[in-house]
Amino acid sequence: MPADLRILDLRKEFESHDGGATVVAVDDVTLEVEKGTLITLLGPSGCGKTTLLRMIAGFEEPTKGQIWFGDKRVDRLAPNLRDTAMVFQSYAIFPHLNVFENVAFGLRMKRLSKEQVAKQVNDVLELVGLGHLGHRQPSQLSGGQQQRVALARSIVMEPRLLLFDEPLSNLDAKLREQMRQEIRELQQRLGITSVYVTHDQIEAMSMSDLVVVMNAGRVEQVGTPLEIYARPVNRFVADFIGNANFVEAQVVDAERVRLGAAVLPLAEPTAVAVGGRVTVVVRPESLELGPAPAGGARGERYLSGRVTRATFLGSHAEYLVNVEGVGELQADVRNPVQLGLLQVGDEVTLTSGALHALPVG
Amino acid sequence: MTIPSRKFLSLALSVLLFAALLFWMYNALAGSFGAIAENHYKKAAEVAMGSVPAKDEAIGGWIRRISGPSREFDLLFLKGFPEDKGGVKVFAPTPALGDFLALNGKDPDFARGIESAMYDEIYQPARRFLLGDEERRVLFAPAHDGETGEVTGTAVFLFSPGGFDRFLSLLRGLFLLALVLFAAVFAVAGYSRDPITGYVILGLFTLVGVFVAYPLFEAVRLTFLQDGKFSLETWKSILTTRQYVTALKGSITLGAFTATASTMVGFLFAFVISRTKVRGKKFFSAMATLPIISPPFSLTLSIILLFGNNGLITKQILGLENFTIYGLGGLTLVQTMGMFPIAFLTMVGILEAIDSTLEDAALNLRATRWETFKTVTLPLSVPGLLSSWLLVFTNSLADFANPLILSGSFRVLSVESYMEVTGMNRLGHGAALSLLLLLPTLSAFLAQRYWVSRKSYVTVTGKPSGRMTELVSPGVKRILVTLMVLIVLFLFSLYGTIIAGCFVKNWGIDYTFSLANFREAFERGWRVLLDTLTLAGAATPIAGILAMIAALVLARKKFPCKRLLDMLILTPFALPGTLVGISYILAFNTKPFLLTGTLAILVLNFVFRYVPVGIQSGVALLNQVDPAIEEAAYTLGADNRQVFTRVTLPLIVPAFFSALVFAFVRAMTAISAAIFLVSANWNLMTVQILNEVGSGRLGVAAAYSMVLLVIVMVAFGVINRLVGRAAQDASTLRF
């Protein structure tokens, strides 16, 4: 059984408007999505994620490459002949139709009987919690309700592929969190293969089975949220997902590196020869901060430094620490209220658990 | 470089194959037609050779009898042969033929022809010969002695292949057309995922090509022709003749006066309505838009009734003797009253889009109200002022109806070009003059495009702030409102004069109540009224539907040469009506588009002239509709047609209807292009009004104007009500 969605060497070039060179929006992307998974296309704006999604939906024609839904090649099919349904950033609710008719639109296109349409629409409206609003006009709905109509309209089609184009970016923070959970639950319950475009890493981390990190039209890394965070393949991914300090370190042996004055363990063995240099990713929350002991050094696993900036953020505090032989590192400390806030100028020691070294080359 | 795809290769191959097939067919047809022609030449020669006179003296007369320019051929007779003792005696009826013999006598084909004749055979060389600079097919035929049957000489026939050539070029044209059509249809089918849209676009291109580009091309071409040859005579005479130069200056002067006055009045109305709190804003904006929909003559007519040589105010009330309203002053007055609505509408849009919090900010920063107006409001409305000035300017230049009646001895280009065409029958001059009219229009347009638009700071938020601080002191406001009321009163009196004019027995002499004008108008004008309604009724739906289709294609589809289509389809609206009218008579008075004198030419003219407005409002509306709404319908399984009928169409219905209203009103009230296209069979109310004014029957003209006004108002009311309902449906368009 082939994967629900396969993308082979997909490429999209646009003519640039001021003449001259073409712009490569999507640069030879290859991707497979198994049935029932939710995959997120994550990247900064202009990375090609939306173009990729629109090619899957059929709104853009690929310059080259193939798109397969199961064993059916679709890249030259018109959008209405592909078994997809899309939830748009702007919701794209038909302003001249009421809620019921918006949801019924696709079913009517399928020429279902009146009874079937009514049953399925009512079921799905119930499912998204809009059972009582069928007769409302779109203009009478709140943002969250409009979002639910858009969602209902898509899932009622039971598409092979559900597409999301930054669907939550127009909602406020609280509502966004709630809808995130609702969408994920619904998707898992119905087992619909989904492609979700977002530039919000929290959305990507919290909802996806797999995250595809894109940059400048290319796929930088594909992996579970944990893999992407813990083992980024390059600086871009490490930087884009969460915060990161990048530190040049010297390989002591396959499993340890020297960082300034300290020697710290690696999470996974490195292939770089002893004495060679690697870049390690130090997540701010993985740094442990402690007051400097009166007697000086605390052993080879410890670095020492001085706080140069302290920011209190409630749940945690962000410190900028100037570390001898390393430079400035950001360190996050949870629960600062009870642990006590450090002040600028305080002498501290730092240590960290196992570090991730970026692959070389 | 990308490698051509397989699709492209297969397309190229099939087009090539089709081309080869056409070429073969063309050759076969041309060959058989050539054979027919040769046979025909031979027959003609044989008939001619049956009557060769025996005597030398008679030969000259015989040649002149059967040949020459009015006949099918020229004839050259050579008596005797080079081998004969007496030598060859040449009979050439004209010196040109003598030259021809001298030039070609040594030609091998010629020698062979004479030899064939000697052996009693006809010879037709394949190549053509030149007689002067004309191509001729040559045929050598033997001449016989009437009694002995002996061969006595050679007749050289020079057939003119004109008809044959024309047939072949027609054939070539048809085959080329077939090839282009085939290639286009094939390319659309092959390249587009959506062939129907492809064919629609192809259709639009064809329509625009035939009804916009072709007539214009014909008009421009004519200005460079003199007796069928290229010449700059027309332009030379236009640019050096004093009368025309005066007219150009007149047009520009009038345009500048009207534009300045209209912009001032328009700004006054727009400012008071959008920037102050006054009562009756709705009424004032209605009044300020009324002149747009009234027939072009109505204001001129009432101006004449009031201020003319026999006017109510000038003669009866003031008793002025030497005053004349005809000329620059009167024209400026009439055009300003008729055109300030254009400036008003532009300015209202701009002023309402200026966020009034900007003014609040200025006031907050210690600016006085006057300083705020001077440093914030006015600079922000400068682009609007400029563009409304330019809009009125171009409109004034193109205006034809008012100057025709009211210009007196003052000359303007539009009237001048009309006179050239109808009075002197010099279409070339008429076309050139209206092209000249295009120059200021075009430069105004370019200025608008590259200069004014760059100075535009206003971003339309679509939400004019509800709270607003008045920028004028109560005193100033009172002055402004008074001015506005005075202008509205004047406008009222103008319309009132028309109404009075139709019910008065004989304006200027006998002011007793009478219905005679209406009786007369309906007696003679009933058919014209029906004609006008038929025309408007036919043009309106066509224009509406075409506008919607074109708007959809232009706003939503990507295709090659889109900007060309966009530009061409919008052109006729920007052109002076006189130019459009002249180009239509030029383009459609011969086959294959013989349309002059028909209803069709009037309908087509209206459709293509007023469709741009519908397109623009359609495109504007579509640009507000999030394309995602249509895309959503596609992903839900709707095909092109369903997306159009179920989503797009319902959303653009208001634009569709307003395009309909506009087309209808224009069809009822237009004159500048139509006046060239009316005929005995199909006449228009506006032209009829002009005729009545021309022959001094102002009362009847007023009656016609009234009828026209009433029809237009009723149409507006009816369609407005419909649109109102549709607009309500679409009011949820943007969230």
Structure description:
The complex is a heterodimer of chains A (361) and B (735). Chain A folds into 2 domains: 5-239, Rossmann fold, CATH 3.40.50.300; 243-357, Beta Barrel (OB fold (Dihydrolipoamide Acetyltransferase, E2P)). By secondary structure, chain A is an alpha+beta fold. Chain A has helices at 49-57, 99-109, 114-127, 143-155, 173-190, 201-207, 225-230, 235-240, 336-339, and strands at residues 5-15, 22-33, 38-42, 64-69, 72-73, 84-87, 161-165, 193-198, 210-215, 218-223, 245-253, 256-259, 262-265, 277-282, 287-291, 303-312, 316-323, 327-334, 347-352, 356-357. Chain A has a 6-stranded mixed β-sheet with strand order 6-7-8-3-9-10, sandwiched between helices. Chain A has a 5-stranded antiparallel β-sheet with strand order 13-12-11-14-20. The two termini of chain A are 35 Å apart. By secondary structure, chain B is mostly helical. Chain B folds into 3 domains: 6-165, Beta-Lactamase; 232-491, MetI-like fold, CATH 1.10.3720.10; 515-735, MetI-like (MetI-like fold, Orthogonal Bundle). Chain B is 70% helix and 6% strand. Chain B contains 26 helices and 9 strands. Chain B has helices at residues 6-49, 56-66, 95-104, 108-118, 162-191, 195-223, 233-240, 242-275, 281-293, 298-307, 312-317, 328-353, 356-364, 369-398, 401-406, 413-422, 427-452, 474-502, 516-556, 562-574, 577-587, 599-624, 627-635, 640-669, 685-694, 698-729; strands at residues 73-79, 89-91, 129-131, 134-144, 151-159, 225-226, 229-230, 504-506, 510-513. Chain B has a 5-stranded antiparallel β-sheet with strand order 2-1-5-4-3, with helices on both faces. Chain B is elongated. Chain A binds chain B through residues 57-59, 61, 76, 78-80, 82, 84-86, 88-96, 105-106, 109-110, 137-139, 146, 150, 153-154, 157, 163, and chain B through 193-194, 626, 628-629, 631-639, 642-643, 646-647, 650-651, 729-735.
